[in-house]
Amino acid sequence: METPSIQDIEQRLLERMEQGTLPIEAVEEDLAALAEAGKPEEADSLSALVEDALAERGRGDDLLRLLLRRADRLADDRAFRAHCETVLQAAFRKDVVGRKHLGHAGFETGRPLKECLHRLMFLRRLAPGMFFLEKTWGFGVVREVDHYYERVTVDFSRKKGHEMAFAYALESLHPVSEDHFCVRWHKDPESLTALVRDRPDEIVKLALRSFGAMSVPRLQELLCEGIVKPDEWKRFWDAARKALKNDPLVRIPARRSDAVELLAKAPGFDAEWFSALAAERLPERVLERLETLEAAVAPDALGDAERATIARRLTYVLSASERDLGWTARGLLQVYQWGVADDVSAGSERLRRFFDPGTLAAAGRELAPRRFRRFLELLFRSDAEAAMSAVAGTLPLANMTLYNELMEFAERAGQGERCWKVIREHWAARRPTVEMLYSLARRPAAITEQGVGTPADLPFLVLDCLEGSFSGDRLRAANQLAELCVQRDWLQAVLPLLTPLQREEMLRRVRQKAGRLALDAQTLTGRMVALCPELSRLLEDASGADDAAAVRFTSWRTYREKQRQLERLVNEEIPQNSRDIAHARSYGDLSENFEYKAAKDMQRILMRRQEELEEALKTVRGTDFERDHTETAGMGTTVTVEGADGQSEVYVILGVWDQDPERHIVSCESEVGRRLTGRRQGDEVILPGEAGERKCRVRRVEGLSDEIRAWARGQNNMA
């Protein structure tokens, strides 16, 4: 059939605009015909004309359809983006709901254009009865959409009546079609139950079509949630596997951990297949095709023509997916898989981008673990030193899955020490990430084995961490950590690492911060008391809190020094003294035994010292010296004073045990610290000195420098 001329189509569109009809399906057909005839510019020109007309008539949904069609080619065109914003604002100017939807599209935040349009389309189509998947709550059905308050209520399989703001729904809800596995199970579970019995292979294919390729363990986990009984899984999978082996559309890997895949059609990597690859315009489809080829064909089995086609398509993919780090990483894997690095423009430069920790972390969150492992190996082969620096630098940015992959890769590469160094630094600064804490909490022995720090600090760092606020992947890690630290087995392993005083302090903190901790404080309290009955006396205090006036503070550096002194005293010096007493007793005649008397005198000194240290640690706590204000001098401030002779001196006021003349650090309980506390800029103060007291004026009261904060935290480079 002959393609209508541009004049014919233009005339037809103008007539429809005059008549006020503009049926959107017919308009799309005309514009598509022009584009297929090799006239995309003419199609764009006419489309823009129609879009203006639709905007003027307030037909925002039809307008959105046309804009999405053009966005495939013009997504990076700034003029087209501006046009989209203008016509959409015009279309929804009289539509209150439409304006609210447009506000969530993301134009003002700089999101990519196609993402903005898809977000807007999502909200325009959002309605009761729609089906979605959400990674935390699973399958859900929309119950209600409240456009006034901009929220949606979803009945998830794991939580009914869950309300979500539009902003969160846009990020987390993924629509599914009527033929999706979950929808069919929701609407007609009997038919799927029959398939389990009669056609297990069809159940597997339905799951693969709905959720994508997955490993056999993941498939088992998915199907055993309700459709296949756990004790019948082996029989089910044996029957399904037997049938699927003869299905050319299903690829079952040799290794159980690899993914079972459902192919769009039976693979045949002939000239026709490579022609289709050369014509493919969607970067994701190019990658999917090459990954299918990779699973079936060895690189050395390809000829020069096929390799050249692959190089051209990968050059296109890397250029088109510049902002999508997941696609870029997958593309680079294919570049080096087929040995076409020399033929792909700027491939090596793009690979070097991933030596940046932030870029590597972002890519790791988008890649499947199996692909991410391969990508790390690729980086390591390219530049081992830069790769390991990137791995270590990425560790603090990683979610739980990524964290585990990075640690395992570093250990396999014999470079685990580089990652442990990063963990030690965060531990010393008392700012380990929730992922670091969860990993160490699961294996407390690693804290000592890897020289991370003092195991007794673990529960206190956990409590500090769980007092924070989290979202996304980090929230899930925090929930896992919270669940772990209330388990009886974990407490049985950790509580013996603490001194009696530390166990009391831990319980006090749990009770004092119960409302701010992301854990079940009541369960934790009960289990601590059950495991350490001597703690029950703390529960007799109805207030559950210490006398705030009796609590004093010091830096974590000096607090840990005192802890180490007590540990050394209890674990080394007192036991050695007991051995000395026993040895001296063996000399006989204790009345004339000088060694025995000296050892007993030392025992009294050590016991008194133990009591003093325990009492000191009971009334003094570690702090980071975070102050809300520095208008007045006091603990956690740097004070500059000027004497009558014009000479200035600086005093850094820290905690009760802190002192370092070289850094001008004085204790808040020293004479200088007490006299300066409460003073403001301009106040006069009399300070003690080597030549007697002198009158000074406070010139500045400031916060602490980064160097002093590092010293107070006890970081290694400040020791």
What would you note in describing this structure?
With 719 residues, the protein is α+β, with helices and mostly antiparallel strands. Among the domains are: 6-125, no CATH class; 131-175; 181-262, Orthogonal Bundle (Arc Repressor Mutant, subunit A); 446-546, no CATH class; 552-623, Transcription elongation factor, GreA/GreB, N-terminal domain (Helix Hairpins, Orthogonal Bundle); 637-718, Chitinase A, domain 3 (Roll), CATH 3.10.50. Helix content is 57%, strand content 10%. It contains 35 helices and 15 strands. A five-stranded antiparallel β-sheet has the order 4-3-2-1-5, with helices on one face. It is globular, with a radius of gyration of 34 Å. It starts with 5 loop residues before the first helix and ends in a 6-residue tail after the last helix. Residues 542-549 have low confidence and may be disordered.
